[in-house]
Structure formats: structure tokens, C-alpha cells
Specification:
about 550 residues
Length: about 550
């Protein structure tokens, strides 16, 4: 880690710092008309000109090489969650193996991120990149970009600003000096040789304004679109098989790991800034009003292992507000900084998965909601083909939702108290239960509408057939009474019989179709005719109405 000298940032240090960003994105269909998309096949093709390669499952290693941290991660979760995360091995007899529905691709060509903070003399810091992953999920059109960065001996204020500003897909506004609001002044992806691979363009306001004016969609910063290639934004002129669009807010969810010399030295304002990711500020001043954060500890902190009054080390404070999870402890605590069996290893694996799962839920539900809106926007009730496509889309969405419910949806993921409580906190703040109920109700309403519409159409068809049958019965009985033949054509030639057949067939067909055209009004007439309370004049008027425009 390298940092330029900047005195305002020179205060207490974060000895070990890690940030894991999650960026959920909605994928557009690769194969039109296919219900289950497998976009990772594009990346998995041999000879592809891109830096992504599929990550080998850690559980696919030699059993003798299986590590303790893998075991600790595995036993954290309940059996049905394990099947989702890791799949299922072969049972007795060598059969029954089930793969995990998660497909992970990793790129290893980016070694560091160089951040320049806003300001006339904004500090510059280079942080290492631990890994950059793309997580695909079977049967749901969602991908999540995962970026983990790390550094040592960072000023606390700089770490707070990095958490606040790094994970921004685009500026929400611009400062007077032209820098993007809440964004880094400059972000640069660095290769292992120190060369710059991509640079942000937050300051180019006109490009963002023109893009929104043209596409009615936000423009993603250059360094993020570079990271995702060959995936390309859906609302752009770039060519690419895998296209994505925004599904959540511009601020990416994140996890933060902060190891201090003395975690007890952090003030309440420092904890609020870390837990709610508000950026740097005076340690003695709250970033929000005292009334707003009066119950901060009760709402956002999990303090089972945190005790400021304890002699020696205070322990570990865990915080979750839905879009962020933070772990704070002492750098001098061997268990807190242990990458294998300690909390640092758990942060990068167990707690990462506890945070990832509810964000998969939210992204999927938002994706389904977006696709429902898209189906409605393309519905033209006067176009039969449009109606058919709409019905097909809704049926497919309902099937996807059912499979999502049985494969991905969990109310609880662990029986371990801290894992159980932190998962509940994150899910509650994201509102996934409410969003799930809303999506299920919307799909159910649409499904009920389609079923009722189908029944209505069938009922109308039955009415028309009944009317045709009722009026056709008159001619059938009249011409077929006692097998009566009006014309003796037994001795007629074939061509005479054919001529009579055509003469009868044509008017009968015309009459039948005409009866179908008037079947709705004729059914009203039959209903009026069968109503004993109506006078004869009203019944006659109903008959006249059959031909009235």
C-alpha cells in the first residue's frame, strides 16, 4: 500500500483494512425464447479473448488438501443451504452428485486499485486487489461482481472515505470543481507491473448527461465497464452477447474489515461512520443528528462479543445496515487477524456468504419485478400475438419464481447464534421478505388474470357454439324429420348430386358463420326469450336488437 502525505488524514491508523464490494446486475437474455439462460457458456468457451476463467470449486480439491477454514465455513450453514452453496457429493453407489447452482469466474490481471480522494490536494492511496469474481446463478438472470481490496496502516479517515466513495457505479451529482458527488476523484486499475489498465471518468459530466438523455438509463463509469468486459451495458452501442443493466442503486453493497491498534479508542461517531458508511469526519461529531442515531447500537450493532468495559481487549463489534456489513476489532488479537481459523478468515468466507445470500434474494426479486413491468409495457391487447407473448412471459416468470423459491429462498441459513442474527438483520434491512411477498402476489394476480381471461374466452366460445347449435337444431329437425327427403335424387347423376350439395353447402356455411357473428346478440335474445318475467314486446325488441347497429 502506498499513500501520499496528507496531514488531515494522519491520525489513528487502521492496521489491517479490507473491503468487499458486491455489484448485483440484471442480465438480458442471451438466447431469445429460452426460459433458462446460461450466459456463463460464453465465458467458458475455449479461446475466448477475455481475462475470465472459471474458478475451481474448493471442495473439488484432493480430500487430503481440504483446509480447516473450508470446514469451518461448511459447518456454519444448514444442510439445505450447503446444497445451494456447495452442491452435493456422490452418495453410496457413486451416484446422486448435484452441482451448486453458482458458477464463479475470476480474473487475475488486476493487482491494485489507485484511489485519488477529492480536494485540491486530495490524498492518493494504492490498495491491493485480492480477487475479482463474477458470480452467475443457474436459472436466474442475475450476475454479481465481487471485488475484494485490502491495505495496511491506513489512516482511519482515509479508510472511511474509501468505503464511502469506492463502490459508486456513477456520480449522483457534480461538485463545483467538476468532481463526481460521493465518488473518488480518480480510480485506476493497475496491472502487476504497475501499468494502468483502466481509469474512471467521473469528472466528465457531459458524457453522463448525454447518455441519460439518449438512453434514459445511467451511464456506468469507464473503470467499472472495463472490469466487466466482455459483458457490456444493455443501454449502449457496444456489441456483446452478455448484456447487463442496473438493478439497484448506484451505491454498491459492501463488507468492511477494520483492525485497529485499540478498537476501544474509536468514538461513537467513528462507529456510526463505519457502520452506516458515511465517509470521514470529526471523531467527536456525529454524521447525523443525535435523534436519528439515538438507537444506533440497538438497530445496527451485534455486540455479543463486544464489551468496552472489559479489561484488556474489548472484543469484536459487528454492524449491519443492509447495504453494508462491518467488522471492527483489535489488530493485536491473534484470533481477530488469523486468516485461516480466525475472524479474518470468517469475514472473507462465512460472513461474506451471510451477506451475499440476502443480496441474491433482493436482486432476483427486483429482476422478476422488472421483467413483469417489461412484459406489461410490451402488451398490446389489440394484437393477438402480443397477448400470446405476454401470457407466455408471465407463465415463464411464475415458473422461475417457483424454482427460485425452492432453490434459493431461505428464511434461516444457520443455527449458530451470531450467523443467524446477522443474516436476519441484513435481510430485514433489505426488506427481502416484504419484496418476496409483493412479487409473489403480483405474479399470482397476473396468473389469476390469465386464468380468468382463458375461462372467459372459453365461456364465450361455448356460448357461441350453443347459439349456433340451438339455431342449427331448427334446420336439422325440419330437414331430417322422420328421415324425410324433399328431393328424390337417388337416380340423379353424380354431377347433379354434387351441384345440389354445393348449392346447399354454401348458404348453410354462410348462415352458420353469420350466426356466429351475431351469436352474442342472439344469446341475449335467447336469454330474454327464456325470461318469463319479460313481456312479449320486450322479447320481440330483443330480437330486433340483433340487427340493430
Amino acid at each position: 500500500m502506498a499513500m501520499s502525505d496528507d496531514k488531515p488524514y494522519q491520525r489513528q491508523l487502521v492496521r489491517q483494512f479490507r473491503e468487499i464490494l458486491l455489484w448485483p446486475l440484471q442480465l438480458m437474455p442471451v438466447k431469445e425464447g429460452a426460459q433458462i439462460q446460461e450466459p456463463w457458456d460464453v465465458l467458458a468457451q475455449p479461446g475466448g479473448e477475455h481475462p475470465w476463467s472459471e474458478l475451481r470449486d474448493e471442495f473439488s480439491c484432493d480430500p487430503e488438501q481440504f483446509q480447516q477454514r473450508h470446514y469451518s465455513e461448511f459447518v456454519t450453514f444448514l444442510p439445505y443451504v450447503r446444497r445451494f452453496l456447495y452442491g452435493e457429493g456422490k452418495g453410496r453407489g457413486g451416484s446422486g452428485a448435484v452441482d451448486s447452482p453458482i458458477r464463479v469466474f475470476r480474473r487475475n490481471d488486476i493487482a491494485a486499485i489507485r484511489m485519488t480522494l477529492p480536494g485540491a490536494d486530495g490524498p492518493q492511496v494504492s490498495l491491493g486487489v485480492a480477487h475479482i469474481d463474477l458470480c452467475f446463478f443457474y436459472d436466474i438472470d442475475v450476475v454479481i461482481l465481487v471485488v475484494e481490496i485490502f491495505g495496511n496502516d491506513l489512516p482511519l479517515a482515509l479508510a472511511q472515505d474509501a468505503l464511502h466513495r469506492f463502490g459508486r457505479a456513477y456520480p449522483t451529482y457534480w461538485e463545483e470543481d467538476g468532481t463526481g458527488g460521493h465518488c473518488l476523484a480518480r480510480a485506476e486499475w493497475l496491472a502487476r507491473d504497475g501499468s494502468v489498465r483502466a481509469v474512471s471518468d467521473f469528472e466528465q459530466r457531459e458524457r453522463y448527461l448525454a447518455f441519460v438523455g439518449r438512453y434514459r438509463a445511467p451511464r456506468f463509469a469507464d473503470h467499472w465497464t472495463y472490469l466487466l468486459r466482455p459483458l457490456v451495458p444493455d443501454n449502449s452501442g457496444e456489441k456483446g452477447l452478455i448484456r447487463y443493466r442496473q438493478i439497484e442503486y448506484s451505491r454498491m453493497p459492501l463488507l468492511a474489515y477494520v483492525a485497529m491498534d485499540d478498537a476501544r479508542s474509536l468514538t461513537r461517531a467513528d462507529f456510526v461512520r463505519l457502520g452506516l458508511v458515511t465517509g470521514s469526519g470529526d471523531s467527536e461529531s456525529l454524521p447525523y443528528s443525535a435523534r436519528y442515531v439515538r438507537d444506533f447500537e440497538e438497530r445496527y450493532c451485534y455486540d455479543q462479543f463486544w464489551n468496552e468495559e472489559r479489561k484488556g481487549r474489548p472484543g469484536t463489534r459487528l454492524m449491519s445496515c443492509g447495504h453494508a456489513f462491518a467488522m471492527v476489532g483489535d489488530a493485536g488479537d491473534p484470533f481477530f487477524v488469523d486468516r485461516e481459523a480466525g475472524l479474518l478468515g470468517q469475514f472473507r468466507h462465512q460472513y461474506f456468504l451471510l451477506f451475499l445470500i440476502p443480496h441474491i434474494h433482493k436482486a432476483t426479486l427486483l429482476m422478476l419485478s422488472d421483467r413483469m413491468v417489461d412484459a406489461l409495457n410490451h402488451l398490446n391487447i389489440h394484437d393477438a400475438e402480443s397477448v400470446k407473448r405476454f401470457k407466455r412471459s408471465i407463465r415463464q416468470l411464475r415458473e422461475i419464481f417457483l424454482r427460485f423459491t425452492h432453490r434459493y429462498w431461505f428464511h434461516e441459513v444457520s443455527d449458530q447464534p451470531q450467523a443467524k442474527e446477522l443474516y436476519r438483520m441484513t435481510s430485514n434491512y433489505l426488506g427481502t421478505d416484504r419484496l418476496y411477498d409483493e412479487t409473489r402476489q403480483e405474479l399470482s394476480d397476473m396468473s389469476d388474470y390469465l386464468e380468468s381471461d382463458t375461462l372467459r374466452r372459453q365461456a364465450n366460445t361455448v356460448v357461441r357454439l350453443t347459439v349456433v347449435t340451438a339455431f342449427g337444431l331448427i334446420g336439422t329437425v325440419a330437414t331430417g324429420f322422420l328421415g324425410m327427403n324433399l328431393f328424390a335424387l337417388a337416380d340423379a347423376s353424380f354431377w347433379e348430386k354434387l351441384a345440389y350439395f354445393i348449392v346447399v353447402l354454401v348458404p348453410t356455411t354462410v348462415l352458420t358463420f353469420y350466426t356466429i357473428v351475431k351469436s352474442k346478440r342472439l344469446s341475449d335474445f335467447l336469454e330474454a326469450l327464456s325470461d318469463e318475467r319479460l313481456p312479449a314486446s320486450a322479447k320481440f325488441q330483443s330480437l330486433v336488437d340483433v340487427w340493430r347497429r
